[in-house]
Structures are given as C-alpha cells and as structure tokens.
Batch of 2 targets.
Target 1
Amino acid sequence: QVQLVESGGGLVQPGGSLRLSCAASGIRFSIYDMAWYRQAPGNQRELVATITSGGSTNYADSVKGRFTISRDNAKNTVYLQMNSLKLEDTAVYYCNAGRVVFGKQFDYWGQGTQVTVSS
C-alpha cells in the first residue's frame, strides 16, 4: 500500500520559514519524480515545485528564489524549504509521487498539510 505522509505545516508570520516533509512508503521512491502542489480556498490545485528522480528541480514563478525542493532517497523523503513566506502562500500543501510506465501515468498523493501565513 502506497502512503505519502506530509508534515511540517503550521502557522507562521510573513517573512518566516517552514520546512515541509513528505515520507513515502510502498513505492520504490528513488525512481519516482516528486512534487509539491498547493491549494488555497476557492482556488485550483497548483504546482509549486518538482524534483525528478535524477535530482533536477523546477519551480513555479511565484516561489522561485524563496522555496527549495530536495529529496533524500535513503530516507524516502522529499522536502520543501519555504523561506520569506508571504500571505499568499497560505494553502494546503500536497506531496505527489509520479512516474510514467509504458505510457501510463501513475500518481500518488498525500493527505496534505496546512500552511497558514498570517500576522
């Protein structure tokens, strides 16, 4: 059974930092591309950052220079370091594991962790 368990969310003031973690089990973590998405109330889920199985990263323009995605294959964990947080970063953050096998997309999702940026 595949499980992705996020942690590290919470309440932080503008300009503060948080580090999200997502621990994976039930998959061969090292061969999956990993990503963080977020969804604010009334908005669609949006892609925040990705890291491929090879370690290449990509970021949404809104978080470039402030967020860093990384992975530790030995711990089956992906991280999202969030610095200089803004009010608009408030959302539920979701971890995603994905890969394509013979043209078929496999996606797994965590349950989400709430990040609230407020003064």
Target 2
Amino acid sequence: QVQFMESGGGLVKPGGSMSLTCNTNGLVFSIYSMSWYRQGPGRERELVATISPEGDIKYADSVKGRFTISRDNARKSLHLQMDNLRPEDTAVYYCNVHENTWFAKFGGPGTQVTVSS
C-alpha cells in the first residue's frame, strides 16, 4: 500500500522556523523526483519545492532562499526546512511523487502550517 505521511506542522510566529517530514511506504522512493505542495485557504494547490533522485532542486519563487528541501533515500523520507516564515506561508503542506497522477491518488492528509502572531 502506497502511503505518504506528513508531519511537523503547527503554529509559528512570523519570522520563525519549522521543519516538515514526509515518511513514505510502498514505493521505490529513491528513483522518483519528490515534491512538497501546499494549499492555502481559498487558494489552489501550488508546487513548493522538488528534489530529483540525483539531488537537483527547484523552488517556487515565493519560497526561494527561505525553504530547503532534502531527502533521505535510506529512510524513504522527504524533508522541508522552512525559515523566515510569513503569514502567506499558511497552508496545508503535502508531499508526493512529482507530477505523477497515479501516485496522486494516494495523497496523505497533509500537515497544517499556520504562521500568525
């Protein structure tokens, strides 16, 4: 059974930091590009960051310089370090295989990140 299990969200003040983790199961994690996505209140889901199997990384312009994506192939896990958080980063954050409609069917519940004073 394919599973994506996000954790690490919560409430943080503007300028603060937070670290998210996505543990996966049921897929050959090391061969896929993996991504973090987010969906804020009243907004469409957006791509936040992507990391290839070789470690090539891309970020959305809105998070560049503030967020860091990484992966641990041995533990089949994906991470997102978020620094200098802003209220507009408030969203539910999800992980999944990058732009793959088949794996999208197994999307996890996500983890809520709220940035507020």
